[in-house]
Fold each of these.
Amino acid sequence: MNIYKRILLDSKLNSNIIPTTKKVDGYINIESFDLLKNIEDVEENKNIYSKIGNKKVLDTFNKIKRELDDVDTSKLYVLSYKKSDNYYLNVLYNLIIQYKIENLKDKYSFAYNIICDELDSYFTKYNFCNFVHNYCDRKRELIGRYDESTLQNGCCYTKGRVCPFFIEGKCTKKCIADKIFTCGYLRRKGIKFKASDFLLLKSILNVRGLYLIDNTLFADEEEMYKLLVSKKGFK
């Protein structure tokens, strides 16, 4: 089973930290978790990266971490995973998985791909840019004032040309900084993100690394990793 789809826990962790979880034949269903039952699922309010929500997740994770350090690798149980409707429960789950991944590059890759996919889904769900006939909300306001060919494709039209990775209406390069970026129009509406919003990144990157994630556009996973290593962006 792929490590990204499981978590290994020993009986001590199960009994002390997740007493309400029912274990059947060595498998634990994440739906049985009771750790974050009082955290509001704020995703429907278009503010999924709540500082309060992240703090509650981090506080819970820190309580678990000491137990994770003591896991007896000779007596492991497998935790089966079914994605929860609660955003923060998924964050906690992924933090625990990431913590138990030993290789730094694998930790980074795990975080990178989850966050890219998460942001893609988030923007699709809420349709922030509201494209109509290839014009976003902001650029539609400028029609008639500028060459219309420069107003298409939203932020993917940059530096006098369409981004070379934007092909047939889709981004073909998984660049985390590009996905975190929002234009001034959206930021004025309160739709803005930064690398430090994501606990999976904060857990492995220092301030320099978070800055690089926020400001290095057009860099894919491998390019960003090499930059973070060269600039000492990891903790």
Note: Residues 104-126 form the longest helix (23 residues).
Amino acid sequence: MRLMTNRRALPVAAAGLAAALLLGACSSSGSGGGSSSSAGGGSSGAASSGKPPHETIGYVDIAASGGMQKRWYNFLTAAAKPLGWTVKMTDANGVASTALQGVQSYVSQGVNAIIISCVDTGPLVPGLAAAKAANIPVIALGCEVPPPTNLYSATYAENEQSLATSLNNYLNKALKAKTCQQVAVLQDNTILVGRERSTYFINALKGSGFNIVATPVIPETSIVPSTTTAISATLAAQPGTCAFVPAFDFSVGPAVAELQALGKSSTVGVYSYYADDVNLPLLRKPNSALQAVVDGPVEQVSLVAIDQLLAHFMKGAVIDPSAASSLTVPFTVFTKANAPANPAGYITPWSISTYLTPYLQKWNSTYNLKLR
């Protein structure tokens, strides 16, 4: 489910979410269930403990070390913790077969639900089919997934076209002001979301009159060497290139490092997505080639996933595939001039408590819980 988006200020969006809800309402590697983030022991029921019965969620991540991937997981575990739920992590490290092993392991373990972040459907079909046969709900989180989507209970994802449009609108002004017309897009074709984002952005740039000089593909299994090669090869073939746009935040760090090594940091800019814990320090660094990132509180979908699972476990409710459709996600372009602070332990510019608190209030009211 794509998110509705606009550019309203964050407090307004958060207040709107809170009102709607009140009216109605880190990781480590492993290929078979991996590590777990335990939110406390199980509970026999809400009436005596103020918490729901204990549930175990199996979480499969395409690349848990990715800055944005940490954000989906961070919001999800923050919501699971007060419920007393356990979240187990499988980090696929960009390898689909490892993700499949994780899903299959979780089915064998009999977890209560499985959440899969940014892994395409095809390689997972045997595991997804096994989960469906075992009546284990599966939610795709963070990224749209290709068919067969009926193997998932729901997909809660960011809006790739809105992200691309927001960044393109900024570049259309910023780059043209610098008379920069030659742009390279570092594509991803490993998963659907990478292909979507790459396509949306290339088309948006072309529509704005930019000359797309190169579109190298960056495999998720060799991000650093592939990005480094793409930067150097593009500049050798197209020395007038003045901007690189990585489709995925994974490539931002290697791109900035290579431009610095080539002595191009002051003449060639990098523009991408997310002020995450990898990108933000680079954005705040005065001499870094990273000039701007577009961002928004897209990780709200993690809270929607937990909200839907809680209703499913407590009331037997069917998980609603459209549950994230009413979320408001304002996008902001962060530059060196307005970059957020970078305190110790930073993961996201968006406050978890701002978005989680309305859900806790909803859950306390709806299920007679005592969550804080």
Note: The longest strand covers residues 30-38.
